[in-house]
Write a structure and sequence with these properties.
The complex is a heterodimer of chains A (343) and B (607). Chain A has 343 residues and is α+β, with helices and mostly antiparallel strands. Chain A is 47% helix and 17% strand. Chain A is elongated and about 95 Å long. Classes of the chains: A alpha+beta (343), B mainly alpha (607).
Chain lengths: 343, 607
């Protein structure tokens, strides 16, 4: 078999070589050089530019029509709505620039496709034009910068909400642990040297503040309409806590604590009833049926979004957003660090 | 000015002596001509061929991991044939090898193809030719520059064959992942080889860049004022300055990492528990690494891009048969981009836990870059306006570059905004952005350069029709590969995932990944057309005339032969800027730089 393939390749090379010889010989008979552009080359390529532009734009709109409703649903957090607003404004602006400038590029390439008798216009510079396309982008950018930074300052400011819920997200290769502050509202201190099989996040056992802390894996709950302040830590390498539905992301860096805060505005149940989410899940479950997998319901997900090793792609945790009462019920059922450690 | 003239004459004298000597014993040995050559043209060819080989390897890697992304778990015999049973048992790619391929693909493309290959080829070829110099200021350093590049390429490739596999922490090699061998197999010997290879690469880059700067400043021929230089040379000059200022920082960054890996220091490490034990390292910070890395990493983007923009400026002007629009604005934009590129690195770090206020400063500086970039794009488009556009393959690729520069550039406005970056940071939106704006633009610039200056490189012409076919396939497949990835990013798909099938939330994106992969495979196959055209034309292409594109610049005033010293007689004298295309009152539509100004004629587009 391998011999046959080899033989076929050798024959192909010989045939190709012979073909080239013929082309080379016939080339010697022609008067024009192969590489010289003819008017018909320019004409064809110029028209091809126009055709490409049309196809390119058609491809763009086809993608928007087909895939735009597979984007993440509208933000499920308070600040996320502002991000969405700013995102939309920016996307419309840059789409407009993208279409207009690409149009002029390909249109001019088509319109001014060369031919032997044409003469180009000597137009080396024009200060007014150059000023215009310095000032217009600059003022558009001023708008983008001002709004971007306004929101950025709000999002990254330190939480002053007395009713905030404090959650620590602890990352390691390759899973997450969420830690709640417990009744005292304070997270116990940690020491990475105390990490062991029964103390996976390195709780400082001497610190009483930590005894009522609650540790959960696979799934964590948060109450709706309350400010959640996340403290992120990592045990080994850099991870990134990415909660796309809430427009939230922050790296987890060994040796330091990082922060992110947001206020969820939709419970998991509300999201499952959202018309956009329903059509999204319909698409997902249609594909799952093809794959021979069970249908699933919508869930908020925490993903790892910084390369962290071989199972980076599989490092996730489910987030349940629920009413405050449900949340209180859930948290009351969880075991504290002290009770787990005593066992 | 006096010193300038002095150096010029001295060099002239020196080279002339060489030249005479060269005639005495006509036969140069094979080794000094083809291997340890000090001639800028030969070194340029060496860089180009090496880069072509590296590019084919990196492209093949991308096809392998794109297939994994579109069809996870499928068995591909050819993947097994290439990677063996250890890394692709039954033809299914191993997750660690996936990360390794992503890492080495990025490293090779960014450093070996688009930095070493692009600058190495065209700075070497065009600087002496276009400023009217006999060769680089130091032929010996130039030779060393190539051989260090070659050595680092060999070391990088050798890491593919070791037991634990090559470095696999991403091309940005963030510690602790890259610092602690227990973190992943690729952080063992593979990472060590990566670090050694990159250190040697930086040596190569510095020797090259210093040479380029010195040559441009000292060896311009009579009349070649800075404001008469082609934009290519300006681009190479600014690129070289960026390289000299930023690459040493990468070395310091790498050196500290080597210390952390091998000598027990804690520059980047603290509070780590891995492999079942706490590490002794205390007090370091990975954020320090990120600052040092991106202090190189961001200027690096422009080290990749500026030569491509320079090449394109030259090709668009020549083939529009018009002066480049806004010559001085183009220089100003490049200087502004070069300067700004040093104060924007923090935009890669909005989500790292860096102080948010620092983030807002970087938002401001980063968005400023959009202004000179916009000026450049508009100037290219205006250069086409009312031109007499000649669609050589080089011109096609240049227009492709302007398109990808715009298409990828506009999403940069979004990513530069820290507020918007929160949700698309490290997703496929970023992958789409930088592949289009940096990857495609730079590789299109490189293709344009190869097609345009092939006659100067190999004294023959490439096949035009194959060039056309290559361009259209490449352009369509390139957009087909990268444009849909914006939508993956907007659906929240993180980059560097071995498969997206692990979470139901990405199940409905299968067809997007398939389109990307099919385009990537077709695009890769289309490069076969280029490779054939390239290697065939080196040996059998039609003989090139002296000035095939009716160009004004000096490289086309030398006879079509590889003359040591470039011009057989005296060096050319320059009388005008390099963009006198279709100047009113002239009998031809181009006036070479060596033609004296007529009485009362204004030079340089009316300045």
């Amino acid at each position: 078999m391998k011999l046959l393939v080899l033989l076929a390749i050798v024959l192909l090379i010989i045939a190709g070589h012979q073909l080239l010889r013929i082309i080379e010989l016939s080339r010697g008979l022609k008067k024009t050089k192969e590489w010289e552009l003819t008017d018909s080359d320019n004409d064809r390529m110029g028209k091809a530019m126009l055709v490409f532009m049309v196809l390119f734009f058609a491809f763009f709109f086809w993608q928007v029509a087909r895939w735009n409703d597979r984007s993440l649903p509208a933000a499920a957090s308070e600040h996320g709505l502002k991000i969405d607003l700013l995102w939309d404004a920016n996307i419309y602006l840059v789409t407009f620039i993208f279409l207009v400038t690409n149009f002029f590029l390909f249109w001019f390439a088509y319109k001014y496709r060369g031919h032997a008798k044409a003469k180009a216009v000597y137009f080396p510079h024009n200060n007014k034009l150059e000023m215009a396309w310095t000032i217009i982008p600059a003022s558009a950018l001023a708008f983008i910068i001002i709004f971007g930074l306004k929101y950025w300052n709000e999002i990254t400011s330190v939480s002053e909400d007395p009713n905030k819920v404090l959650v620590e997200l602890y990352a390691k290769q390759f899973d997450w642990t969420a830690r709640y502050a417990g009744k005292d509202g304070k997270l116990g201190t940690t020491d990475f040297r105390q990490i062991s099989g029964s103390n996976s996040v390195g709780m400082d056992t001497a610190d009483v503040l930590g005894s009522d802390d609650i540790l959960v894996k696979n799934e964590f709950h948060i109450p709706v309409n309350k400010e959640i302040v996340f403290e992120m830590r990592s045990r080994d390498v850099i991870h990134s806590a990415y909660m796309p539905h809430f427009r939230a992301q922050m790296n987890c860096v060994p040796g330091m604590v990082t922060f992110f805060k947001f206020k969820p505005i939709k419970t998991t149940a509300e999201m499952r009833n959202d018309p956009y989410v329903k059509q999204l899940m319909a698409g997902i479950n249609a594909q799952r049926k093809i794959n021979g997998e069970e249908p699933v319901e919508f869930d908020y997900t925490l993903l790892c979004n910084k390369i962290c090793g071989s199972s980076h792609y599989a490092m996730a945790m489910t987030i349940i957003v629920e009413s405050e009462a449900d949340y209180n019920n859930w948290i009351a059922k969880q075991k504290t660090f002290k009770t787990v450690a005593q066992k | 000015m006096a010193t300038h003239t002095h150096t010029q004459t001295e060099h002239e004298h020196m080279v002339h002596h060489d030249h005479v000597h060269h005639h005495d014993d006509h036969e140069e040995s094979f080794v000094s001509k083809y291997i340890f050559s000090m001639d800028h043209k030969m070194i340029s060819r060496q860089f180009l061929i090496t880069a072509v080989v590296m590019a084919v390897i990196a492209m093949t890697m991308s096809v392998i991991f794109r297939m994994q992304l579109a069809w996870p778990g499928e068995k591909f015999a050819f993947v097994n044939a290439l990677l063996g049973d250890k890394w692709a048992k039954d033809g299914i790619l191993d997750p660690n090898m996936y990360l390794a391929l992503v890492t080495i693909h990025g490293t090779i493309m960014v450093f070996f193809v688009l930095t070493g290959g692009l600058s190495g080829t065209f700075s070497n070829l065009l600087i002496p030719y276009q400023i009217g110099a006999r060769d680089m200021a130091s032929g010996f350093l130039n030779m060393l520059s190539y051989w260090f590049f070659f050595l680092s390429s060999v070391i990088m490739l050798s890491s593919l064959f070791i037991d634990d596999g090559p470095a696999s922490g991403g091309w940005t090699i963030y510690p602790p992942l890259s610092a602690v061998p227990e973190a992943m197999p690729g952080s063992k010997l593979g990472m060590t080889l990566w670090l050694i290879s990159m250190t040697i690469f930086v040596v190569s880059s510095l020797l090259g860049s210093l040479n380029y700067i010195i040559t441009i400043i000292n060896l311009r021929t009579k009349g070649m004022k800075m404001t008469r230089m082609p934009l290519t040379v300006w681009a190479f000059l600014i690129t070289a300055i960026l390289g000299v200022l930023s690459f040493p920082v990468l070395v310091s960054c790498v050196l500290l990492l080597i210390m952390d890996r091998g000598f027990g220091t804690s520059f980047y490490l603290s509070d780590i528990y891995i492999g079942g034990r706490p590490l002794d390292n205390i007090g370091g910070s990975p954020i320090l690494f990120e600052h040092l890395f991106w202090f190189l990493g961001h200027p690096e983007v422009y080290i990749v891009l500026l030569p491509a923009l320079g090449i394109t400026s030259e090709i668009i002007a020549t083939n529009s048969r018009k002066p480049i629009f806004g010559y001085r604005a183009m220089i100003g934009s490049m200087l502004a981009i070069g300067f700004l590129s040093f104060i924007v690195w923090g935009h890669h770090m909005y989500m790292t836990g860096m102080n948010p206020f620092l983030g807002s400063v970087f938002v401001f500086t980063t968005l400023l870059i959009a202004i000179p970039s916009a000026v450049k794009a508009f100037n290219y488009i205006t250069t086409l306006w009312k031109g007499n556009v000649q669609f050589t393959p080089a011109m096609l690729f240049s227009i492709g570059l302007v398109s990808s520069f715009i298409t990828g550039g506009v999403t940069g406005i979004i990513l530069a905004d820290s507020t918007l970056d929160i949700n698309v940071h490290d997703t496929y939106f970023v992958v789409a952005h930088f592949h289009i704006v940096m990857g495609l633009s730079a590789i299109f610039g490189m293709f344009a350069g190869v097609y345009h200056w092939f006659p100067k490189l190999f004294l023959r012409m490439m096949n035009k029709k194959l060039g056309f076919v290559h361009f259209w396939f490449t352009l369509v497949c390139a957009y087909g590969t990268f444009f849909p990835q914006h939508f993956l990013g907007m659906a929240g798909v993180p980059r560097r995932y071995y498969t997206n099938s692990n979470f139901p939330m990405f199940d409905n994106l299968v067809d997007i990944n398939e389109i990307c992969t099919i385009s990537a495979i077709l695009g890769a196959l289309a490069q076969g057309i280029f490779l054939f055209n390239f290697f065939y034309s080196i040996f059998r292409g039609e003989k090139a005339p002296q000035n095939p594109w009716n160009s004004t610049t000096l490289e086309w005033t030398t006879p079509m032969a590889n003359i040591h010293g470039n011009w057989p007689g005296a060096l050319p004298v320059v009388h005008r800027w390099s963009y006198d295309y279709s100047k009113p009152g002239k009998s031809t539509d181009f006036v070479p730089q060596t033609v004296p100004l007529e009485e009362g004629e204004v030079d340089g587009g009316g300045h």
